[in-house]
Every structure is written in C-alpha cells, then in structure tokens.
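Dear Dr. H.,

I hope your travels went smoothly. While you were away I took the liberty of generating a structure for the chain from your last submission, since the lab meeting agenda had it listed for discussion. I wanted you to have the full record in hand beforehand rather than looking at slides cold. The sequence, exactly as received, is reproduced here:
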Amino acid sequence: MGFFDSMKTEKLGKQAYNAHVQANDLQRRGKVADAKAKYDEALGMYKQAYDAGCRKTGILMSYSVLMMRNGMFAEARELMKEVSAIGGMSKEVHFELRINYSICLWRLGILDKAIETIEYAGKYAKNSAYYSSICTYYVERAAQSGADADFEAARALLDEAMDYDDEDAPTLDNYGEYYRQLSLRETDPQRKAELRKSAVDYYERAHKQKPGQITTLYALANFAREDGNLARARELVDKALMHSGSRVCPVSTEMLKELKAQLA
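The corresponding predicted structure, in token form, is as follows:
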C-alpha cells in the first residue's frame, strides 16, 4: 500500500471512529433511533476502512467493540485475534484488548475461557472494567453450577471489587445478582426473604449510582412486578428501553419488551 493509499484508509478509519463516538453520545442521551442509525453508519465505515487495508490497532479495536454491540461476536473474536497478532501495542492497550476479548467469549457462551482470559489480564492490572467483568463471570458461573465453592469464589471477588470502589454501579449490580441467585436456591422462607431484600438493596444502590444501567433496571422491574408494583415496573422498563440496544448487554431489547407486555 502506497503512502497516499495509507493516508486514505487511515482517514476512513478515523471517520468511522468519529461516527462511533457520535453514536455513543446519542445513545447516552436516550436518542435510541438516531443512535442506531449512526452506529450502522459507523459499522459500514469501519468495514470500508478495513476492506481498504486499514490496520490501525485503535481503529480495529473500536471496530470489534461495535461488532459486539451488534451481536457479531464471532466476527469480533476473529478481528481481536488479528489485532493481537499485529503486535507492538502497549501493555495498557493489550490489557484493554484482553478485557474486550473476555467479554466476547462470555457473550459467545465460552465462560471458562472468558474467566481464564480476564484472570490473565488481571496479572497486569485491576481496574473497574476488570472487576465489573470478572465478577459478572464468577456470579454467572456460580448460578450455572450451584456449587457452594463457586458462590464462595464469587463472594471473595465481589468483596475485593468493593474494596476497590464501593460506589461502582456494575459492582453493586453484580452484588445484587449474587444475592438474587442465592435467594433462588434458598428453601427456608425467612432466609429467602432476607437474601432477596439484600439483592434489592444492592440493585437500588446501583440504580442510584447509574440510573441508566440496563441490567439494574431490568432486575428492579422484575422485583417490582413480583411485589405487585406494576406502575414502578413499567416506569423502569420504559427507562431501560430508552437506553437498550447493545447486544453486549445480557438483557436484550426483546427481553425488555416481553417484560413490558407482561405488565400491560
């Protein structure tokens, strides 16, 4: 590729990235339809840049993130492998790539490999992205296995995450899910009610810190439905629908719409 061709492909990549940033801003402001259109535009531009030969690490990483947002997890996985093979990235960028790769594996249902990948990343650094992701994986593994050892391991990581930042919304959300899962397996009515209350309390704390967090809104809406507070449940679901759209989130737009139909 010649110098001018390289400049052209890099320009295409930057234009795609800028459209991606604009879409994120629209999504944060609750302009879901406008955001989707801009995301679609960015995705097409990323592909155009890639097909033209753009191999800038930052551009490809952003492209893979948008692929995941659109549910293209297999494609994102292959692209992240390609980025890793390029080499020459800083430890910080490699850490980010491993976190993203673990999320991709998780959404593909390859949970053990996702945990292995993020634990390897944790040897370099541990930040909010690390804790929110690994705690999600550990809680999900405990929920799937039902094993006491897995619940204990999840609790240990959640405590570590709380020590890192006890106001982090994803951590509070993960704690809420941890207690919700414990309540589901409990047979004693009083203990079951206590665990459920702990779950609600943590989800409420997460909601206070990050009012637009989809998983929190979905959980609280379900709790409100179970308690017979349909008005609040509808309010929470409608708010979640304002911000939904990313396939990275385990709570899909379809799930929210199904819950809303139950509240009619």
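Two observations you may find useful: The chain has a mean pLDDT of 95. The two ends are 59 Å apart (CA to CA).

With kind regards,
E. W.
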